[in-house]
Amino acid sequence: MIDVSFLAQSPGWRWSYSRLQQFHSCKYGWLLKYVFEAPQRKLFFSEYGKLMHELIAGVLSGEISWRAAELEYARRFHDMLQCYGPPGSVKAGYFMDGLRHLRCGSSPSAHNLQAIGHPLAIEQYVEFEVGGHPFCGYIDLVARGDAGAISIIDHKSRALKERGGRRVKSNALLDEYLRQLYLYSVPVAKRYGPPSNLMFNCFRSGSIISEPFSQAAFEETIAWALRTIEEILRETEWLPCEDAWKCRYLCDVAGDCEYATK
Question: Looking at residue 93, what is its pLDDT?
Fold first, then answer.
């Protein structure tokens, strides 16, 4: 039996959406990463996402041009090929998708992103509380539109789909990702005012998905976060993930996991 309640009592400990979500993805992986502090391997998908976030942030902040971002992307992508990841054909597809988005801002999502409004925050680190628990995170973008509406935007490599009546799995995935933005709405509302829209910049597919802020969904997210914290602090079995694909390509501590799919 492993008691992790000491983490919550540590002065430097912060909860986050990723820490809560990872617990639901793989309890044993959560234990390896946050309790045993297993070495983390570099993964293609996560390194790709970091690079795209960095370049998009650079363009939006005015530090670099779209052209400079495109050239930097092409230069650094080769290094990511050495990271653990899927077959080369998948990586090639990701390369072309990222290139289309950055190519002088010519993709639909790049145009839409610039039309959202004036940036208030870009890759901003925030600390806040949820139900008395300390949280932290990095908000990709907060923007204020011409009419004053505030939007929270998250850049996603995953090609999410607009909400649809019969898209049960797609809707569930969208709701899962929206939880992160609803958590971020706590510090955003305190600093900039209540958000009106939550958005995903799906740069690989060239689309932006926007949903109006829902008070009911916000309250459900807070309940989910507090419930998950309770589950983590009560957990005793720490069972591993049974999804071989996630285990192989999305887990950064799989190198030290005896259950991992090699």
Answer: 94
The CA distance from 203 to 43, in Å, is 19
Share of the chain above pLDDT 90, in %: 70
pLDDT for the residue 261: 64
CATH code of the domain covering residue 216: 3.90.320.10
How many structural domains does the chain have? 1
Q: How far apart are CA 169 and CA 26, in angstroms?
A: 20
Instruction: Tell me if 47 is assigned to some domain.
Output: no
3-class secondary structure per residue, 27-48: HHHHHHHHCCCCCCCCEHHHHH
Asked if residue 178 is part of any domain, the answer here is yes
pLDDT tens, 95-125? 999 998 888 666 666 777 777 889 999 999 9
Q: How far apart are CA 170 and CA 241, in angstroms?
A: 21
**pLDDT value at residue 246:** 87
Distance CA 86, CA 80 (A): 12
- Per DSSP, helices labelled H in the chain are 5-9, 17-25, 27-34, 44-60, 66-80, 88-102, 108-115, 168-191, 215-234, 244-249
Residue 27 located in a structural domain: no
Q: In angstroms, rounded to a whole number, what is the distance separating the alpha carbons of residues 94 and 241?
A: 26
Residue 154: count of CB within 10 angstroms of its CB: 20
